[in-house]
Amino acid sequence: MISAVVLASLLAAAPSYEASGEISFHVHGGVGNGASFDAGRVIGPSANLTNTEGVWAGDIGGQNVSLDVSPTRITGANLDLHLEKDGAKRSIRGNFFGQRLSLEYGEKRVSGRVGSCSFTLDRKRVGVYEGTVGCMDRGARLPRTGYGILNFAGLAAEAEPPSPQFQLALVATLVGG
Q1: Which of 13, 100, 129, 142 is an S-S bond match for 150, by CB 3.0 to 4.6 Å?
Q2: What is the DSSP letter of 122?
Q3: Which pTM value belongs to this model?
Q4: Residues 6+ positions from 139 with CB-CB distance below 8 Å
């Protein structure tokens, strides 16, 4: 059993976390997901990452990771994401633990493909994107479709959200665990 003194010292030593940006995604009739971030952490049901001396370590998508980050790439074991910027449009493309991932986002639209799912979400107001989501399951004759809502809040809704926190939170939110 942990004594009150030991517990208090452990809690006092824990780094303070106050989200500066949040991302959430929900498909009607389905389960939602999300992640929040600050300068040194990304936290959500599918992510718990901490920046320690330039390496983002923890877990994302149910996998333990140690990620090296540059302005154009996020890499780790079984994870290789390329970050591109073309004017106001941004993209994340690559391999996420055996799944092909391709995301494009900008002021007016967020679209992409993750594994066997694809989506096109149009901006309805600042930080809110809505549209169709479709997934093709193995052996299924017809795809499953739905209506999805993606929300960006705080720094996630800015024209230049912090990197790599935004990208890691977006991938964790859309890929899940």
Answers
A1: 129
A2: E
A3: 0.87
A4: none
Q: How is residue 40 written in tokens?
A: 């040194």
**Residue 141 exposed, middle or buried by CB count within 10 Å (0-12, 13-18, 19+):** exposed
Name which of 83, 78, 129, 127 is nearest 102 in CA terms.
83
CA–CA distance, 146 with 161 (Å, rounded to integer): 28
CB-facing half-sphere around the CA of 87: CA atoms within 13 A: 3
CA 9 – CA 3 distance, rounded (Å): 10
pLDDT digits (tens, 9 = 90+) for 81-116: 999 999 889 999 999 999 999 999 999 999 999 988
User: Angle CA(137)–CA(43)–CA(35) in degrees, nearest 5?
Assistant: 50
Domain ranges of the chain: 19-175
Dist CA 149 CA 123 (whole Å): 10
| Whole-angstrom distance, CA of residue 97 vs CA of residue 67 | 13
